[in-house]
UniProtKB/TrEMBL annotation:
<dbReference type="InterPro" id="IPR018713">
    <property type="entry name" value="MPAB/Lcp_cat_dom"/>
</dbReference>
<protein>
    <submittedName>
        <fullName>DUF2236 domain-containing protein</fullName>
    </submittedName>
</protein>
<dbReference type="GO" id="GO:0016491">
    <property type="term" value="F:oxidoreductase activity"/>
</dbReference>
<dbReference type="Pfam" id="PF09995">
    <property type="entry name" value="MPAB_Lcp_cat"/>
</dbReference>
<feature type="domain" description="ER-bound oxygenase mpaB/mpaB'/Rubber oxygenase catalytic">
    <location>
        <begin position="13"/>
        <end position="238"/>
    </location>
</feature>
Amino acid sequence: MTDGLFRDDDMIRVVTREGLLIAAGGVASLLQTAHPKVAQGVYDHSYTAENPLRRLQNTMGWLYAVQFGTRDEAERFSALVRKGHEQITGPDYEANDPELQVWVAATLFAVGAQFYQALFRRRFSDQELAELYGQTKVYATILGCPEERMPATYADFRVYYADMVHNLRITDASRQIAHQVLNPRLPIGPLRALSAPGLAMIRLITAGMMPAPIREQYGWTWTAGRELRFRLLMGALATVYPRLPSRVRTLPREYYLMTTRRTLAKLAKQRNPVLTVTTTGRRDPGQTGTAA
């Protein structure tokens, strides 16, 4: 596709086309809510607990629109996100605060790069990491964050990220959100039973990839046994997943792009569409839109 924000050989597309990255979504999500202001916004406004599958669908829909959609799709969806975020405010936070946008974008870059390298047993060069970091700035800038608020270079990012990881102090809201994310409320029936192994895998990946200072604050026990199980799991995924046909590995992208395009087409017919998206957003009864 040539009419999007990126080319197919850009690092952001090379990494994010891999559907299994969704398994690392809990890491990015709970790193984001390790920031007290993000956590409070999510706790006050998000519908993650009530409808985790809808939350996942809308999060991935926005991300894939930005990464793989046309420029028009990415910009239209993101404009609706910004509009929705105007409603997400509290005594000490605003969803459109550049400070929070920078942190959210940083977690998406860091987790995506880390998981991809582990999955494909490939170490990115500094040049590749610099390219990927520069492209993932879009997660903040397309939502209105001034680019000068972002760490300018990959080297600057490393300093910023290390400082945040070692100095963030999570809150009770952070811990409650973590419980909701890792123990989602699913409908009673076959879906719940079938999802149990997948959720166990996601909990192990989330704990294993979480930076130790944040993991300790969440209160997650990390023993030698869990470390071994994590390494065995990642080794198994790295053995099997890269050998799958690319059309299988990219199925999530195709599905979420399809649902995104349907949503945008539906919203285009409405007079005043409202979309409450990304890290926060509770949809009011009767309100049309999505939230990620």
